[in-house]
Amino acid sequence: MTDETAGYADFEFERRFLVRSLPDALRDTPALIVQSYYLSDGGYALRVRCQASGVDAGLGPESDAQDVLRRHAGAVDFAAVTVKGPSAGGTRYEAEREIDPRVGVELVRRGGAQVLKTRYAAWLGADGWSVDVFGGANSPLVVAECERSGPVVELQIPDFCVTELTDDRRFSNESLALDPYSGWSAAFAQELARTGPRFRQDFGPNTTIPSG
Description:
By secondary structure, the protein is of the alpha+beta class. The chain has five helices and eleven strands.
């Protein structure tokens, strides 16, 4: 870690975007993620995440987080407890501590409001991207994010990104755990049709790049 980034150790810097359809060519090396939020209030959150690398659980709108976790508990190879603060300008306090996967599985099984998704990773343009395809009550939501060790400026945005969600608390995972996308997706579609897509310009010039 450099002196410049040392002060950023407990912060995350990311920009997030709505995706309508993820190209099949990018659906490689999936990771199943099941996570519980034990606190979600005003942008503050306490989360336990379980992740199973290489697992495609075939998530859909009928998928149940507890059932999926039960079937794939043995494949969980990463778990962590994370404390988060409110997001502002694509910057958010985040302190994460890795824990034993077996403990993580039991914590997620025993409580919290849960989110279920498959994460895909891809290198697009100058950055690595994560694309989350949600299951259960948040299906068919797809969100792409670019995270860096410092502010995400002058970003090359893949052409599959429809509009920017950075700092839109409705799309934070802790909000989705309590108020799933399926309950307000139609209203958001009307909102987007009325306002049009938005891409923030206060992080320096954006450029659009092809995704395939």
